[in-house]
Write a structure and sequence with these properties.
This protein is of the alpha+beta class. It contains 17 helices and 20 strands. The strands form six sheets. Strands 9-10-16-11-15-14 form a six-stranded mixed β-barrel. The protein has a four-stranded antiparallel β-sheet with strand order 6-5-12-13, with no helix packed on it. Strands 8-19-18-17 form a four-stranded antiparallel β-sheet, with no helix packed on it.
Length: 628
């Protein structure tokens, strides 16, 4: 029998079944208005027999076709599956309606023999929507969802016959899973064989547990503490831990390893908020504490959003071309928030040194000329000037030149009377950004010693997922992070053109080769920042350290996990971590190695060394200052 003949005969059987189904629906509608007559009951019995005969003929037709012919392609397979589904839907729906209208003893068909219990459950008169079974194509991670849904709705359904269950099973399978059982003839006995084959192939507990554990290990990290990121994190957690619990593997109780994994997935700000909720508590938190905190964070986010929009109440926000400025109304001290006096009369502010006052004004982005909080010095309308030097700054911010000079001339400094270097970025289309950069390596005044700068190994990852481990330096005085041109070419980064200049010592200009965005993490996977802006320069500095460090230093660090295991060997530096990331690097651990030895500082990368250090005498000959 070819496929065309099979299709033609099947459509004839389908039309017969559709006609009977329509008659049954009409009888059901009339039964709601008046009880069924004897003639209607007999008609229902005849229609039931007609349905039994039609479905039996269809099953025989399918078996004859599958025994003699193989569908010629994917389109024939889809037509066969669709026809099976339509015939089965008509049969089951009509039988269910007849079973509700007639006594069960009068309508028990031959092909249902042995499948119904002595006390079948009554059928509800409520018309439920069409049941949509989940599809399964052989993906192991989706097996349990499919298995649970099919087992409850079809496999354990006593109203359905084994043949009908087999039809539903075939209609819900795709791909590899369908190929596994499609060769079996559609009979009641073969349904159990097909179900056992699927269970044997895909119900591998060890494999499924390993897959769910891997999903937890590879959970997407929380980025920037956003609501969508936390929701995705929690959904993945609950999906996989509940699946493991179904296999009798509850990993959420007193599991310090799981807790460590989850905390490492959080960004710095979210971790900090979690620790703030615990207060001064040195006991190890439970996994449930962390999950409850994240759920509470989601609730707070959602409660803060009114009508789906984020709203901000309070001080008025005004935006200009270069800065976001917050203006407030009322007269009060911007430093101590006391409404009884202005900032220039504030004793707490005046008690600080001019240098400290200038730093506070700069950090708060106040006006250097009038100390106003609503604008910068560029847009200040005040005509007043410093009453000491007549320059455009407030008298409280005037610096004593003599005291500054004496500070630079103190004995023991690296370079006497040397102006601190600065790094600034300027451009026509960018707001002015000045970056102070104290990045100098000089010989110490003591013999056979040098100043060691903090170097570390850093993993840089592009948005496309390509990563590379490079050697970097930590610089708290630079307001931007930088990579070298060589590093940019190795990573094949996508760069943006920026009309900027980098200003170094004595206002010397360095050309910027562009801007790119990279993710930074430790070699072990501890994330420092995602998609962080990085400036590209031709070079950052010469090889560091400038001299070979004494082996005694490395001997003292044998028991430490080093951020840069080659800190004592002069090597290239391809990345600079500036002040934009510098505060998030350190863990607060400090280790004193001894007099004239560098200080070991704990970071997320490991321990870095910084400060005066002994060197081998032979290297002192060529030891010259290095300035980036």
């Amino acid at each position: 029998m070819n496929f065309a003949t099979f299709t033609r005969k099947s459509n004839l059987l389908k039309k017969r079944l559709e006609k009977v189904h329509g008659s049954v629906l009409s009888t059901e509608a009339s039964s709601k208005e008046s009880p069924l007559s004897d003639i209607q009951i007999r008609r229902l019995t005849c229609w039931k027999n007609e349905i039994d005969n039609t479905i039996s003929e269809f099953n025989d037709l399918v078996n004859r076709f599958t025994d003699t012919e193989t569908p010629s392609g994917l389109q024939d397979d889809e037509l066969l599956v669709k026809l099976r589904e339509e015939m089965l839907d008509l049969c089951v729906d009509a039988n269910c309606i007849i079973s509700a209208l007639l006594p069960m003893a009068n309508v028990k068909p031959d092909y249902l023999a042995g499948t119904l219990g002595e006390n079948p459950l009554p059928r509800s008169s409520v018309r439920l929507p069409k049941l949509e079974l989940p599809q399964f194509s052989g993906e192991p991670i989706k097996w349990m969802h499919y298995y649970n849904a099919f087992d409850v709705t079809i496999h354990k359904n006593q109203v359905l016959s084994s043949v009908e269950k087999f039809q539903y099973l075939l209609s819900s399978l795709r791909g590899e899973a369908l190929q596994l059982v499609s060769g079996l003839p559609i009979t009641g006995e073969n349904y159990k064989i097909a179900w056992d084959l699927l269970h044997q192939r895909y119900h591998n507990v060890r494999k499924l547990v390993s897959l769910h554990v891997s999903k937890i290990l590879d959970m997407p990290p929380v980025m920037n503490g956003s609501l969508s990121s936390i929701r995705s994190f929690l959904s993945t957690y609950f999906e996989n831990t509940q699946a493991l619990s179904a296999f009798q593997y509850d990993i959420t109780q007193e599991n310090i390893l799981l807790l460590s994994i989850l905390i490492r997935k959080l960004d710095f700000e979210t971790r900090k908020r979690f620790e703030d909720t615990r207060g001064v508590n040195h006991e190890l938190p439970a996994v449930s504490d962390l999950i409850n905190f994240l759920e509470a964070e989601c609730v707070h986010f959602e409660d803060a959003i009114i009508d789906g929009r984020r709203t901000v109440k309070g001080p008025q926000i005004r935006i200009n071309k270069t800065a976001l400025i917050t203006t407030t109304t009322g007269n009060f001290c911007a430093f101590c928030r006391d409404p009884s006096h202005a900032i220039y009369s504030c004793s707490a502010f005046k008690d600080k040194s001019p240098q400290e006052r200038k730093v506070i004004v700069g950090e708060k982005k106040w006006c250097y000329n009038c100390l106003g909080t609503s604008h910068t010095v560029k847009s200040c309308n005040s005509s007043r000037r410093c009453n000491r030097c007549a320059k455009r700054h407030h008298s409280l911010l005037h610096l004593n030149v003599n005291s500054s000079s004496s500070l630079n001339n103190r004995p023991g400094t690296a370079a006497a009377n040397a102006q601190l270097p600065s790094l600034s970025i300027s451009g026509k289309s960018q707001p002015e950004l000045t970056t102070e950069k104290h990045f100098v390596g000089l010989s110490s005044s003591k013999p056979n010693t040098s100043i060691l700068l903090a170097t570390t190994l850093i993993r840089l990852t592009t948005p496309s997922g390509f990563s590379h481990v490079v050697r970097g330096i930590l610089d708290s005085a630079s307001q931007c992070s930088i990579i070298s041109e060589r590093c940019a070419q190795v990573l094949n980064v996508t760069r943006r053109r920026v009309n900027n200049e980098i200003n170094g010592l004595s206002q010397s200009h360095v050309k910027c080769n562009g801007l790119t965005f990279l993710s930074l993490s430790s070699v072990g996977g501890k994330v420092l920042a995602y998609s962080h802006p990085m400036m590209i320069l031709q070079n950052i500095t010469s090889n560091l350290p400038l001299a070979t460090i004494s082996p005694e230093v490395k001997e003292k660090m044998k028991s430490f996990v080093l951020a840069d295991p080659t800190f004592d060997v002069p090597s290239p530096v391809d990345v600079l971590i500036g002040a934009d990331l510098f505060p998030h690097v350190f863990t607060g651990i400090r280790c004193f190695l001894g007099e004239n030895y560098p200080l070991a500082l704990g970071t997320i990368f490991g321990f870095v060394l910084m400060g005066s250090t002994p060197i081998t005498p032979v290297s002192e000959i060529n030891h010259k200052p290095s300035v980036a």
